Amino acid sequence: MTIRISGTGSALPQRTVTNTELTELVDTSDQWIRERTGIGERRISTGETVAALAADACRQALNMAGKTASEVELILVATCTPELLLPCCGCQVQSMLGASQAAAFDLNAACAGFLFALDTVYAYLKAGIYRNALVVGSEVISKLVDWSDRSTCVLFGDGAGAVFVEAANEDVICENGRTAGVEALLQGADGSKGSVLSCQERPVQNPFLPEQPEACAGPYVHMDGREVYKFATRQVPACILAALEQAELTVEDVDLFLLHQANERIIAAAAKRLGAELDKFPMNLQRLGNMSSATIPVLLDELNRAGRIHKGDRLVLSGFGAGLTYGATVLVWG
Ligand code: ACO
Predict the structure, then answer these.
(1) Where are the alpha helices (DSSP H) in 165-277?
(2) Cα separation, 15 vs 48, whole angstroms
């Protein structure tokens, strides 16, 4: 048994915010942002919600797969920016789609969330618990950003991407002889480095505390950019190599590497460490910035719709994020 991604979709807020516009908010420049990150502009929500963006992306994925909402068995939304603590975003999406037969829940692994959700769905489908699922990465991370902090506000964007995944009972052999489906996956976390990229929730506050806590410093993303950079440039290539080794493959066997779109320099450094051509690492961060868990599925959808992914292509998806979390999944498109 393996899985097949039969539909992809994405949804972005209407409003584009350029680097030049950010220079009106903080002491920065278009040149600094482009040189240090590669980012030129990003989409920022002016009302679009995590749930609505997710539902839009799901509708497109279902449409491409030729499925109706009532056929969906599971909705798994990766997000760290839901509108509500309760109920979960997955249930909001289920309601918006009218996918009444689907189980639904959320998963938070920050920017590695979509990858972890895809791996989770793979395990469910492989175990025969469900036959299909919508896997989503959706974020309105702009609401967690301190717009007076130049070290973080220039990095992020909002958006959502989704895939429809189906169990394939029989092997699908592609024209190039490769068998479609997941070939290897690897997930990891280093909780001891949690403080280098974090965002506070409300502190415990109730009438029974001996002392009332100090007011929360503000639920904004706090990041030690250099530490995250070091972690990503070391861990992402190491994790990709380990996943490839699991499948007895080498870097040369891979057609495209879809990496979390945080920073062009991180992607270039990963390519260099892997000894792979940079043109195998498609990017959309120049237009969309870092959309956390949404970056990989949005990129996948853009490439798929542009006809840049073909049956039999071997893809490596790899992400990293707050946690710190990281992972890599090797799959053949079928
Ligand atoms: N504009 C102008 N100057 C800036 C800006 C800005 N937007 N931000 C920081 N600076 C300044 C700093 O204050 C510092 O000034 P100083 O030397 O006077 O102290 C100088 O630029 C250099 O700062 P560094 O932090 O050393 O810059 P660096 O080259 O490391 O780039 C960056 C910063 C882009 C954040 C980089 O460290 C990075 O990409 N890190 C990884 C971040 C990341 O990937 N985060 C997300 C991953 S997980 C997730 O997606 C949630």
Answers:
(1) 225-246, 264-274
(2) 10
Residue type, position 228, single letter = V
What's the rounded Cα separation, in Å, for the pair 314 and 205?
Answer: 50
Q: How far is the centre of ligand 1, averaged over its atoms, from the C-alpha of 25 (Å)?
A: 17
Global pTM reads 0.96
Count CB-CB contacts under 10 A for residue 281: 18
Copy the structure tokens of residue 318: 């790899």
So what's the pLDDT on residue 218?
A: 67
- Nearest CA-CA partner of 290 in 316, 320, 315, 268: 320
DSSP β-bridge partners for residue 223: 197
**CA 139 remoteness from chain centre:** 9
Model confidence over 94-103: pLDDT tens digits?
Answer: 999 999 999 9
Which residue's alpha carbon is at the smallest distance from atom 15 of ligand 1?
151
The token duo for 37 is: 């990150």
Res. 217 pLDDT band, cuts 50 70 90: low
The reply to whether 91 belongs to the active site is: no
What's the distance, Cα to Cα, between the start and end of the chain in Å? 13
- Which SS3 state, helix, strand or coil, does residue 70 take? helix
159-169: per-residue pLDDT in tens? 999 999 999 88
CB-hemisphere CA count at 13 Å for 243? 31
Active site residue 290: yes
Amino acid at 195: S
Binding pocket residue ranges, ligand 1, CB within 6 Å: 28, 32-33, 36-37, 110-111, 150-151, 154-155, 197, 223, 225-226, 228-229, 232, 262-263, 266, 290, 292, 321-322
